[in-house]
Amino acid sequence: MKKTLLAGLGLVLGLTSFAAAETVTIYSGRGEALIAPLIKQFEAETGVTAEVRYGGTSELATLLLEEGAKSPADVFWAQDAGALGALSSAFADLPAEVNETVLDAFRNDANKWVATSGRTRVLVYSTERVKDDDLPKNIADLTDEKYKGRVAWAPTNGGFQAFVTAFRLTKGDETVKAWLKAMIANEAKVYRNNGTQIDAIANGEVDFGLINNYYLGRYTARDAEFPVGQTTFAAGDIGNLVLVAGAGIVEASDNKENARKFIDFLLSPAAQQFITLQGYEYPVRTGIIPHATLEPLEAVNEISPKVDTNTLGDLEATLNLLREVGLL
Questions:
Q1: Is the pLDDT of residue 18 over 80?
Q2: Residue set of the binding site for Fe cation
């Protein structure tokens, strides 16, 4: 009753209602299965109710841009840096201290968004049908005849699209277009996402897949004999790209205080430890113990290509290229 009276008084006086002050609306490209426990923990710690809309990162990014100033979203939590860069103009500036705790490899110096976890692109393969000398040295090798019909990919996946964006920025559109066409000609098989690629390898449909590093650990945690392994390409190859998931506060939001509470929570030691232990991703700040299955970050930095994740915002050009070659 008291809460209702306060809300009514706020409306009469033209003030923000009690309910609005104690909620935060999140558009999440991150899957519900992983983050729902985090959302509950945030609510328990802050008393703020989170209203979450789940969906594909690209889908929600498009929705946010279409809604513009009328969007109900306070926070956008993206699966990949490409969408974050594409939405920079829709984000409010973050205080510099938000990014100060973030490791250099994952930091957004423009302070338009903040990384919440790191991940790498990897090659997964069948441990039953693939021998060591059959593993490709570079991602370009996958267009060779020996891999015909044996490789899976997920063109609609945000991580793959961020990879294509980085590929374009480092090698040029024509080179990437030629690679995509060569992969298609080599009968690369399209799957919905990273997990379905792993399933397809285990089921014998394909022998290789291009995914983010953290998916396979979920399978091997349930079955130590699961017949899929993962590896990287030669040092510096674009197939070893380091990516981030991250979040920004929507400029149109009139609830930025609670949005900031959620951002701060995602960077807290408890949330970062949860993300790496349950999600098999890299924590983005020091003082967190990474999951034991993860390669040391120093080793990752040695083999990853030198690509600034802050430059991956040209998502529309990537989508246009994927449409042009018939993958979307």
A1: no
A2: 214-215
